[in-house]
Design brief:
This protein has nine helices and 14 strands. It has helices at about 20-30, 50-55, 85-90, 110-120, 135-145, 160-175, 185-190, 235-240, 250-265; strands spanning about 10-15, 35-45, 60-65, 80, 95, 105, 130, 150-155, 180, 195-200, 220-225, 245, 270-275, 275. The strands form three sheets. It has a six-stranded mixed β-sheet. A six-stranded parallel β-sheet has the order 9-8-7-10-11-12. Strands 13-14 form a two-stranded antiparallel sheet. Helix 4 crosses helix 5. It is globular. Bound molecules: NADP nicotinamide-adenine-dinucleotide phosphate. NADP nicotinamide-adenine-dinucleotide phosphate binds near residues 157, 159, 201, 227 and 252.
């Protein structure tokens, strides 16, 4: 890929960054789409986040950056504005740098999740959902499910306080959705769920315990996992074996590509006049 002075630059800020592969996938897409855009991970420690973010304001060929663990919430006070959904979710994963250096934070995790489901032919309207996890991505997914019309959402998380806080926040924003936190995985909740989604990182490692008794899964259910590696998590494998529709984590990542392009203006023509971005 050719990176020159006309290339629009994106970063991904995180700590650690060794696990980041989205940069490579995005660069391949930019090249395939004929876009003069490049993205590079930056390893930024928490104590240096403010310095790095303030520096990016002065970098005129930078159009924005992604933000990942552990900075998704810590960055909020460093930004100038948030989209409505980022404010609701309480975390950001993508920041647009405007030509004047101002920074707008958004969170496209949840919309990416929903768009991925739509591509798999799943419409969440009126459905009962059992969600595992209430972390950063879990919050985004829960808000997106409720906003898209899920009828019922049961949230199970290891840290029950986070599950309760998320259930309360979602219920306040979307009163039509019946939301509750659950401190155990009731077999009835599993059986009654039409969509089961894992938003935890449990399932990334071979030694991870199962989220629940997978033998209960039935073919009419949609089983979804947002973990990207491994692609076929134990939950998804069990869903596949049971004949369920299986929604992979990579779908959510892929679906975020056009959302990020739109937010950062990558889909609009780039003009440079006298060295200043306009
Ligand atoms: N496909 C995509 O585009 C995409 C996008 C974003 C994230 N992700 C993936 O989503 C996962 C979560 O990311 P995140 O940003 O939400 O992280 P996070 O904010 O750190 O949240 C982690 C979540 O996983 C739970 N968890 C972690 N280890 C656990 C364990 N051993 N047992 C039970 N629960 C455990 C946490 O529970 P507690 O609250 O109890 O700690 C929390 O709910 C990661 O695998 C990440 O790669 C995928």
């Amino acid at each position: 890929m050719k990176i020159t002075g006309t290339t629009r630059i994106r970063f991904i800020l995180g700590d650690p960054v060794q696990q980041i592969i989205a940069s490579h996938n995005s660069n391949l897409r930019y090249e395939a789409d004929g876009l003069d855009v490049a993205v590079c991970p930056l390893h930024v420690r928490a104590e240096d986040l403010e310095t790095v973010v303030q520096s990016i304001r002065c970098m005129h060929n930078v159009i924005g950056f992604g933000i990942t663990i552990p900075h998704k919430i810590a960055i909020l006070p460093l930004l100038d504005s948030l989209t409505e959904r980022a404010a609701l979710i309480g975390s950001v994963n993508t920041i647009a740098r405007r030509p004047d250096g101002s920074l707008l934070g958004d969170n496209v995790d949840g919309q990416g999740y929903l768009d991925g489901l739509t591509r798999d032919g799943v419409d969440v309207r009126g459905l009962r959902v059992l969600q595992f996890g209430a972390g950063g991505a879990g919050r985004a997914v829960a808000f997106s499910l409720a906003s898209a019309g899920a009828a019922e959402l049961v949230i199970r998380n290891r840290n029950m306080e986070r599950a309760i806080a998320l259930a309360q926040d979602v219920a306040r924003a979307y009163p039509a959705c019946m939301v509750r936190a659950s401190d155990l995985v009731a077999e009835d909740d599993v059986r009654q769920a039409e969509i089961i989604v894992n938003t935890t990182s449990q399932g990334m490692h071979a030694e991870d315990a199962c989220l629940f008794d997978y033998s209960v899964l039935a073919a009419h259910q949609v089983v979804s996992d947002i973990i990207m590696v491994p692609e076929l998590t134990p939950l998804l494998k069990a869903g596949k074996d049971a004949g369920c529709l299986v929604a992979y984590g990579k779908r959510m990542t892929e679906a975020q590509y056009p959302l990020v392009c739109a937010l950062l203006g990558i889909d609009r023509p780039h003009q440079v006049h006298g060295g200043a971005e306009v």
